Amino acid sequence: QVQLVESGGGLVQAGGSLRVTCAASGRTLSTYVMGWFRQVPGKDREFVAAITQSGAGTNYADSVKGRFTISRDNAKNTVYLQMNSLKPEDTAIYYCAAVRNKYIATRSYLYDYWGQGTQVTVSS
Q1: Residue 77 to residue 5: CA distance in whole angstroms
Q2: Residues 103/110, Cβ–Cβ less than 8 Å
Q3: Nearest-angstrom CA–CA distance, 79 and 5
Q4: Which residues pair with 72 in a beta bridge?
Q5: Which helix (H) or strand (E) holds 97?
Q6: Would you tell me how many other CB atoms lie within 10 Å of the CB of residue 95?
Q7: Measured torsion, CA atoms of residues 117, 70, 50, 7, in degrees rounded to the nearest 10
Q8: In degrees rounded to 5, what are phi and psi of residue 89?
Q9: What is the distance, to the nearest Å, from the Cα of residue 124 to the centroid of all Cα atoms in its chain?
Q10: pLDDT in tens, 40-96
Q11: Cα→Cα distances 46→6, 105, 106, Å
């Protein structure tokens, strides 16, 4: 069992930066592909980014490519999402998720473990 806890969300102006963190407990994250998703009320959960177990491979949604960076520190059992050049349309609850998988997964239903989410609000 893996427990995931997100932190670092908040309110930021458009063009600003924010880093959200996902801390894991229960098991080491080094064997899990990790993903970040986001959701706004009334819409489906949307893929944002994912990273392989070693951190060598990443995948990003087109909407965040070039602005967001996913990274991980397996020694700290932590995954990060650095968000730069934020836009109002990035406003959402951000969730981290984990799956034991050979390849990066971009579909939310493939992930086994989820955090409770952290709110990110970007003002215009």
Answers
A1: 11
A2: no
A3: 10
A4: 79
A5: strand 92-99
A6: 23
A7: -10
A8: -70, -5
A9: 23
A10: 999 999 999 999 999 999 999 999 999 999 999 999 999 999 999 999 999 999 999
A11: 17, 12, 9
